Amino acid sequence: MIELKNVNFKYGSGKKKDYNLSDISLHIKAGECVVVTGESGCGKTTLTRVINGLCPNYFEGAISGTYILDGEQVFSSDEGKPIDIYEDYEKTLDDIGMLAGNVFQDPRSQFFSVNTTDEIVLAMENRNFTRERMNERLKDMDELMGIGKLLDQNLFKLSSGEKQKVAIAAACSVEPKVLIMDEPSANLDKEGTAQLGCLLKKLKTKGYTIVISEHRLGYLKELADLMIVMRAGQIEKIFEASDYNRLSDDDMIKMGLRVLSEIPEFVPTGRKRGDTPILMVDNIRFKQGRKEILNDFSANFYRGEITVITGRNGVGKTTLCRIIAGELNQQRGSVRIFGASIPAKKRIADCFFVGQDADYQIFTPTVLQEVTLNTGFGGDEKEVEDILKRFDLWEYRKRHPASLSGGQKQRVILAAALLRNNPILILDEPTSGLDGRHMRVIAEYLRNAAENGICILVITHDREFISIVADKVLNIETSSE
Questions:
Q1: Which of 150, 377, 389, 416 has the fewest Cβ atoms nearer than 10 Å?
Q2: Which H or E element spans position 469?
Q3: pTM above 0.85, yes or no
């Protein structure tokens, strides 16, 4: 179904050493599920973009080698003769799109409509499907993935898992032979991830060829036929199912990857916390329109303690943390810091909030400027250099943060947060887009920050991360520790 021969690609222009993909040769059979993994910045997202035609048709750059999709040549060129996408591609982007459907890490980035049904049928309308055929495909999608209750809904009122399901339905509506997904589990809770695994199994049974770029691998253990490990733009290892299922946690950690084994339920660390809470949330109430998101929510948070906040997608975790950080104002109740009730606008001075989407928190033209921007940092250049090196960002210090991979951007914002040294640090899904090695590095820095007296709140569904970082887990659905 997919064959790549000696494919090279580099974004924009640059020297050979700057190639983002180098000498990629790959053979994927029809009906296989292939997982592409590796440390952040290894090139796995770029590989998926080559397969779906977005590199270089949308993300400009120089490409060479040979690409065959479903037995037909997409392009072929020697390394010394980069392809002109307008003249040398034998298949148009639309031709590739008919064969290969795409689901991005953040489904919102690919939505064109507000109404869910409009979104699912959009690709069919663009390809002149009859109304009868579109209705048939909607029924097919409902039978395959149970989207009936999601039809004719406002997309932006859905949970992350529901948005993901709509994006998959939209991609599959035109019956492609290949489905390409970029970190589909990154923002899903445990239930959503399990549902995603079941859905992928159904799609594979239906004959889809599935290519998934992913860090969190456990839910794919029984599904994947191949696991491709990339490093520095090259394929480092390829494991068949029989091989990677024998990999131990230590084997995965040595490769800088997430573990494959099931993570046990959280066990409190027993780390000593202060006697007096630094942060007290009392009887918070918040409504959005007619929907009540938080109702009389109360909790205490202590200096030197890492509290993980869990709960299903859409239950109000991010809303709670935005209220604490002063980005939203509660409609009832109070937020007390160091014993004093603090209005929303003044809470920003004590809190540093790191949101899910790093792109919204990038403001400067270089990584070095970004990590020290408005941090209140005293100018210890050695500390800046140390954290950038530990986060593998030092070599990118003069690069624009927007040019980095998703995981690298996340590490830039986390470095800025840790350097600021606010008494309260709030992180919303900080391991989204992070590989195993950098996830463990971040965990170590957070533990050190807590030991230095910072109160840390972390919203996450990442059970592996929870197992190594949390002192306490607060389930917002039950408001219980």
A1: 389
A2: helix 463-469
A3: no
Confidence of residue 357 (pLDDT cuts 50, 70, 90): confident
End-to-end, the C-alpha distance of the chain in Å comes to 49
The span from the CA of 347 to the CA of 323, in Å, is 9
Residue pair 353/317 in contact (Cβ under 8 Å)? The answer is no
Quickly count: other Cβ atoms within 10 Å of residue 211's Cβ. Answer: 27
The answer to whether 264 and 467 are in contact (CB under 8 A) is yes
pLDDT: which is higher, 366 or 381:
366
Find the angle CA(83)-CA(87)-CA(90) to the nearest 5 degrees: 85
**CB distance 219 to 161 below 8 Å:** no
Copy the structure tokens of residue 466.
């929870």
Q: How far is CA 96 from the centre of its chain?
A: 25
How far apart CA 123 and CA 128 sit, in angstroms, is 9
Closest CA to 430 of 413, 445, 447: 413
Of residues 76, 119, 73, 122, the one with CA closest to residue 99: 73
Residue 256 near residue 73, CB atoms below 8 Å: no
CB neighbour list of residue 468: distance below 8 Å, 6 or more residues apart: 440, 443
Which one-letter amino acid corresponds to residue 268?
P
pLDDT of residue 480: 41
Amino acid at 62: A
Q: Which of 24, 19, 20, 32 is nearest to 7 (CA)?
A: 24
Q: pLDDT tier at 161 (50, 70, 90 boundaries)?
A: confident
The pLDDT of residue 381 is above 90 = no
Residue 285 CA to residue 307 CA, distance in Å, equals 21
Using CA atoms, how far residue 351 sits from 52, 155, 420, in Å, is 41, 31, 10
86, 90, 93, 94 alpha-carbon torsion, rounded to 10°: 120
Q: Which two tokens stand for residue 307?
A: 């509290």
Q: How many whole angstroms separate alpha carbon 284 and alpha carbon 293?
A: 10
Phi and psi at residue 115, in whole multiples of 5°? Answer: -85, 135
CA distance 356 to 377: 23
Cα angle value 11/435/179 (rounded, 5°): 65
CB atoms within 10 A of CB 288: 12
Residue-wise pLDDT tens digits, 81-133: 555 554 566 888 888 988 999 998 777 788 999 999 999 999 999 989 999 99
Q: What is the pLDDT of residue 291?
A: 78
Three-class SS of residue 72? strand
